[in-house]
Amino acid sequence: MEKFILITCLLSCPILVFGTEGIRECPGLPVPQFVNITGCDKAPCALKRGQNAEMISGFLSNEYSDNLKTRAYFREIESGVAGEFPLPNDKGNTCDWLVSTTCPIYPTEDVTFMLSMPVLLIYPKNMDLDLKITVENEDKTILTCFQVLAYTT
């Protein structure tokens, strides 16, 4: 039921941000067909501590994959400190968050997935971040990637 409500909300109020200021391709990696970040019509996007950052994205699969994993990376702009945002297992398993399809996925298949990324209260306020979101398969091949500027509130 939670997934249905989230899908309905995201699809009824999509805000296309791919191609606007702050959304970038990852050099040399496949780009998504679209990215909608809830509550963000123009990057940098606000990440509210204590809440989940919600997004929906789509890409064209370039190969067969049994399993998919979403990963989120950050670089704090001022200090340059970088790392991976730890996603809970139930959020990082992309196969559980596919819309209108299931794993395995096939070459040339249009794939839409959702991401609900926890923004923990322990994260400092007013951090300017460069985020990178990827989806990789069981061979660690990246199937899609995008970058977006964000900040914590």
TrEMBL record:
Keyword DNA-binding found: no
MF terms in GO: sterol binding
Domain MD-2-related lipid-recognition: 23-150
Record key words, sorted: Secreted, Signal
Keyword Signal: yes
InterPro entries: Ig_E-set (IPR014756), ML_dom (IPR003172), NPC2-like (IPR039670)
Localization per Swiss-Prot or TrEMBL: Secreted
GO cellular component entries: extracellular region
One annotated GO biological process: sterol transport
Extent of the signal sequence: 1-19
Recorded family membership: Belongs to the NPC2 family.
Protein name: CSON007608 protein
Annotated organism of origin: Culicoides sonorensis
